[in-house]
Amino acid sequence: MVNVSIARRYARALLDVATEAGRTDAVAEQLTALADVIAKNAELTDVLVNPAYTREQRLHVVESVMKAIPGGVEPTLANTLRLLVDRNRLGYLGDIARLFRDMADARAGRVRGHVTSAAPLPADALAQLQQTLQQLTQRNVLLETRVDPSLLGGVAAQVGSILYDGSIRTQLEEMRRELKQR
């Protein structure tokens, strides 16, 4: 089981340094991208977390990955990655990325949400939905969209732990439950 408190300490320290440098969003974007690349590549993950590889080998791989990123890696993030290699904490990178993003969002007054619809939403409808959710939550809402044809119609939006479900599937389920009770 992964110790989240370790990941939280690294994420908080990285956030503090990135905030001082005024590069929080850039670090968050690169950190998330790196964590995704490593998580999706089993061989790369093996090299970075397997104790059979030396610290120097892992550092060489991390340096190569950082050089492959167009425009280079933020210096703050590069130093953090080197520290993670030095302390054998690269296995926590995915959790660090998730916690960093959540802490950066909280610090900036943002909240992330997911909108699921039966068909792709037009840009104006998505913008209106985002504005409505911002009024409801009193925070800046960043939406990710998903398409799920099983909804039949309507949308379901989750912001934080609150679910706003206006899907036809849910309305039909509620009607079915009411009819069963009669």
Structure write-up:
By secondary structure, the chain is of the alpha+beta class. It has eight helices and four strands; from the N terminus they run ααααααβαβββα. It has two domains: 4-106, N-terminal domain of the delta subunit of the F1F0-ATP synthase (Peroxidase, domain 1), CATH 1.10.520.20; 110-181, Glutaredoxin, CATH 3.40.30. Strands 2-1-3-4 form a four-stranded mixed sheet. Helix 1 packs across helix 6 (93-108), helix 2 packs antiparallel against helix 6 (93-108) and helix 3 packs across helix 4 (55-68). The longest helix is centred in the first third of the chain and has 18 residues, at 4-21. The termini are far apart.
Provide a compact summary of the structure.
63% of the residues lie in helices and 14% in strands.
